[in-house]
Amino acid sequence: MDKKLLSERDICSKYITPSLQQAGWDLHRQIREEVTLTVGRVQVRGNNMHQRGNKLFADYVLYQQPGVPLAVVEAKDNKHAIGAGMRQALDYAQLLDVPFAYSSNGDGFLEHDLTQANGVLERQISLDEFPSPQELWQRYCRYKGLEQPEQQKLLNQPFYQDSTTHEPRYYQAVAVNKTAEAVARGQKRLLLVMATGTGKTYTAFQIIHRLWKAGAKKRILFLADRNILIDQPYRGDFRPFGDSMTLVKNHHVDHAYEIYLALYQGLSSNDPEAEAYKQFSPGFFDLIVVDECHRGSSAADSRWRAILDYFPTATHLGLTATPSNDEDRSNYDYFGRPIYTYSLKQGIADGFLAPYKVVRVQLDRDLSWRPEVGQKDSNGSEVEDREYNLSDYDRTLVLEKRTEKIAERVTQFLHALGDRYAKTIVFCIDREHASRMRTALVNRNQGMVHQHPEYVMQLTSDQPNYLGWVERFTEPKDPMPVIVTTSKLLTTGVDTKTVKVIVLDAPISSLTEFKQIIGRGTRIDEKHKKFFFTILDFRNATRLFADPNFDGEPEDVIEVEPEDEDMSGAVSGGTPPASPPVPVLPGGPNPGPRPKVYVRDVPVSVLREQVQYYGPDGRLITESLLDYTRRRLRNHYADLTDFLARWRTADNPQQLVQELEAHGLLLAELQEQANQPDLDLFDLLCHVAYDQPPLTRRQRAERVRRRDYFERFGAPARQVLDLLLDKYTDEGPAGLESPNVLTLDPLRDLGTPTELVRRFGGSQQFAAALHELRTGLYQAS
Q: Which of 114, 523, 608, 666 has a CB 3.0–4.6 Å from the CB of 197, allowing a cystine?
């Protein structure tokens, strides 16, 4: 048999798999084929998910044992060179954090070995020379500096899996494995940075379970600063710990357990003699996991840090999506540099996190407002004569019609979205602002509120049963409430999987806080059709997207402590954090916070709106979408001739659309913004990028009809072509691309597909005629 006639799958089954088995790899336990690494970036068209980008599959992943990958093998058919798959193999190996990558076409293997065990980085080996599992494992452990038997025992401890758990995603497995390796090397302080929505709690469970079962860590403390951050793991991911696990409440400590979940506030106290953590001996815990460690534990002088310092022999592992790093509080100073980072940008690119767009809304009064001479506030007092702007609004001065205008714009957006039940969070300055915003939204949505009294709600910690309402809002199956107003309560640590709209009407200077707020929308929930989210920004807070550290490592982050929320989550026996100091006003003794001034009769209107889209490089596109499209398209096709040539040679328009989207063009958004449904995408792109006068689809169809193109066919065939042009006019190129086009209206009324094809002399002649029709539609003017 000629090897070059075999498909890639034949090469795998006849040559590569037998070679791996001959080397000693267990087919059922150590070899996996077509391993899904990513699920494909969500590509949005209009207000709906159109499709996902290409998934990444590794042809082979070789494992020491399930969950512990060692090598990637990429296969090609024998028409390719032996190393043709190496680029892909290296990309996949980097994702999986493995040092071995192989490429094969069935003649042998090209080996890329970061350990350089044979003195070279790359070498070609025969099919019979593929290394055994034991050999690669020894190279791996030597490369990682983990050659002691007790270290390798920890690395070989399996992941937890039963019928209720899912297999770790590739980055979760990397995080768990890197943590196990660091512990095996004896590191005492570790930091994992994982974007919101990527499963930090599940990852923490797998880490704890693996270290616990291996006997490396026998007593573990999971620390957080909100009830929901320990209640959710206790009821969810941590359930397999069963009777070995307990919640610390009411400052009551029971030494009979192995896994403890506790709030900082439940272990500490203002009274040094009543601090519950001192009921444990300093050596009691072997591992302390600090959830959301960017908050209190990062401050060197905090009471929370005192808990960590009390257990000096334990390994301290910090988890966060947004590490802090400034002179007052630094995760890096305490935990060290991250042993692994999985960023928002990477999560969106992989398809595990939702992309977003930003609508920046500027109101006319936001530039500045100065009261008229003698203008009175709602209490009849004269308003202080000075210029007011965004830094004043809702903090010291309330323009009541500004709140109403924002409520109106949010309501309009939900109407335009076509989903009045889209979960929405409105972030306000404080509780009073959240209360006013709730009232304004109720008045703008009276019909919905009449039908559903919980449609709009205020979620701040002073509201009755606020934790219960938070739980309802975050429960995907519960449709109510839909719109919630808050200040700090929902900024972090709350799993808001189905949130589709985030409204910013509070000034945000902290990059950490901003990233946490954006994280409320990044989760994907396919079951409830949540694939992307929108940010409505009324305070120019999204300027922070431009910060180079937004999706990188932080430098000089200013951390703003919550102003009005009870961060303790109302744990019985807990001690809430101290209230921030009241500012001292000039002119005498401190009279307390300055009361807000309310002004009713100042009209407010929308001055300007700008829509910004999430680009392929993980940044917001700040130039106009037209300029962005022109620049991107011309980068790939310098002039119209090049673009026309590529359009005509594409197997079908959809193939070219996918290619252009892979180059970073936002075609759906461009068509939505252009709002010219009669224009073919081809004409829109030619017009935007190459200044060509656009033709409507009807005009293109009529140009084809006027040519002598139809004259070569008999009347029965011309009748089919004429209807195909009508279908193109109504539906665009997609109308011609359906494989079942002859079975659809209006063609099916002419006869069966077999009968219609026979009008052209056969299927090959019909395919040629259809191809010529497509080409004719896009001939240059």
A: 523
